[in-house]
Amino acid sequence: MSDFKAIEISDILGLSKPLEKLLDCISSACGKIYEPKHIKRMAEAHAEEIKTLSDSLKDNPDLLIKYDHGTLSIENYPVIERAKQRFLTQEIIKQNNIDNIIKIAACELNNETIVSDEPVDKTWLLRFFKSIEDITEHEIQVLWGKILAGEIKQPNTVSLRTLDIIKNVSRNEALLFNDISIFALRHENSLFLPKYTDLLEEQNIFYSSILKLEEVGFMTTSVVTLEIPITENNDILCYNNNYLINAKPKSNSNIIKIPVYCFTTSAQEIISIIKPINNNNLLKSYFQYLNEDNKKFDFSILKITEINENKQEISFYDTPITNLDLL
Asked: Which position among 38, 234, 243, 296 has the lowest Cβ density within 10 Å, counted as fewest Cβ atoms?
């Protein structure tokens, strides 16, 4: 069962700007399907019935056709009814999937007060709503709902390429991505896991899991070496949403090299939307590893107070954390 409280679309009309923008996006991509237009629905149902008969005639020319008092019918009633029932069932499932994801997006936007005035791209909206028709798993619906809300708040956050990737993600793959992304560390525009097998396996992160995420399109197994210059004005080595590791050189050395597994651009877009709650254990283990393995620098952990992603600025307390059990 959903953890989100039920929000009917009719209940949010006229409320906050974010929710009004959500309705505009729905109307732009789907039409005003949440307004009670009974006549329109009846007309569309009648048109679909005619189309079903027409298609049946094309595919089955030997069927017996009857015309009685202005009514066209086919003498294979059970087959036609089964076809109509199948079509109706599939469309109801699709509509329920769309409705669930819209409600999740509405919940995400319900407490927001500010959204960008920039409209969401029409092509993006059409691709989005086409992609979510067949999404029935709740966990994946939550992901799509957050993506829609995030794109409404700030358009161009999630690319069309990323939508295509997520469309093919299974429930287990999404859960695996969530389990691993909570350990992600960042340096400037790079989001990564340090490639130290012992440290990763301590957190139940195995190469086979990274390989699966590479197949999905979320990570790369090719090892990249980050070369990070450490200066007086730039001493942040890496960070998550809670803490950062900084470094102070003891000698003339001012470059630290980190072998890493990188998250892809699509994965970074998703993480920026869902904002997973970080697990600090990998950062703590990596800090301990650095102190033991790299004697040319002094390392410390500092508590982050604010991250401004647009300006790439980090605010933090100056006092290092000495008791790592507090992390």
From this structure: 38
